[in-house]
Amino acid sequence: MQPKIQVKNVTKVFGDHPERALELLDEGLGRKEILQRTGQTVGIQNVCFDVAQGEILVVMGLSGCGKSTLIRCLNRLIEPTSGEVVIDGEDILKLSNEKVLERRRRKFGMVFQNFALFPHRTILDNAGFGLEIGGADKATRDAKATEALKLVGLDGWEQSYPSQLSGGMQQRVGLARALAVDPDILLMDEAFSALDPLIRRDMQDELLALQSRVKKTIVFITHDLDEALRLGDRIVLMKDGYVVQIGTPEDILTSPATRYVERFVEDVDKTQVLTAGALMHDPKIRVTPNDGPRTALHKMDQESFYSVFVTQRDGTLEGYVWAEDAAEAVKRKEKTLEGLIQRDHYAVKPDESLGTLFQMLVDTRIPLAVVDDHGKLLGTIVKTQVLAALADAQPDRENTNEEEGEPAQTQEAPDAKVGA
Ligand SMILES: Nc1ncnc2c1ncn2[C@@H]1O[C@H](COP(=O)(O)OP(=O)(O)OP(=O)(O)O)[C@@H](O)[C@H]1O
Ligand SMILES: [Mg+2]
Q1: Cα–Cα distances in Å, from 304 out to 370, 374, 417?
Q2: A Gene Ontology biological process annotation (predicted)?
Q3: pLDDT given at position 415
Q4: Which residue among 25, 44, 67 has the greatest number of ligand 1 atoms within 8 angstroms of its CB, and so is best to mutate?
């Protein structure tokens, strides 16, 4: 499918002589030197990425790295110096001003930090403002604004004035204003940054809930890594005007591309971000209830496993069987595994966080089963993998382990090995 947004080599130079800066950029000079030599400020340089329809792409980086410049280039509120911005297959940098204005109104909604509401307009009129600019009549405006306010949880506040609303609620009006025009694309620049932490988390949750219903394409800017990790399907990490890394939250955490990214992610509690889906491995072996004990035993033997998960033919997880029990059943000449299946295993969904998994692994002698919504076995997680991920997440702890005498792995019971 064609990406909703394609950003191709976009560069923005602020100043009267961008061509000088472009030359020096080509020669490989950095932002600082270019400013010293030419007086031109490189806002962003050679930025490339795609945004898929329905995706939340988060752009993050420190203050001044070019986030706002980038997001404003997407709807030409800032005119890029070079490059292409392709929206739905159309390079909007090639459009006439008139057309750009039309596209901007129809396709984009914007939400900023400290969203300025009109103090003397009602909440309803504030939410309908984008439609008003677009020339919609009062009845249409009110109908759509009412609906948008409902989406952000503000029904009942239509006739109030901004001063009567808390900061968080005002920010929701900003979101409603953007949603009221029913844009395909939402551009959100530090939209939640001015809110206090608890309200900010609520807003993040609500945005995710909203997104699962309305399926917009969202470019969300933040300088907060936790926010980026919570919201982003993918994250674009920027530094000094260029892109350092693009990847899923897990990519960024588990394989930071540079020392810069590494420093960014050092403080994050990875146990909250790494998920079962990221940690699981294919179950190497599995059996069905109708398999014989000898078959099961043979499969376990081959992998030196002490137990094996049992699934139906369609993959639905039933339970597991101990190698010991299978061996006994062979002696008793039993034909199937039916009577041997244990069901006290943990089954988790792929989005379960490492923190929770760790608790379960402490409790169980067999691996965790990762299942989909229909209960089908997707993969397994063994203790050693989780410990490795945790050790990786907390490099400072390495020394502590040594003091305790034994490396973590040897404490793992041998029976913890199953189909991993
Ligand atoms: N209109 C402008 N004229 C000149 N320089 C500008 C202009 N707008 C931005 N810049 C410069 O471009 C660079 C990137 O600025 P930008 O506002 O995009 O950063 P940002 O990542 O959004 O920062 P923040 O997190 O503080 O909002 C900065 O060096 C800034 O000074
Ligand atoms: Mg900014």
Answers
A1: 21, 29, 8
A2: response to osmotic stress
A3: 39
A4: 67
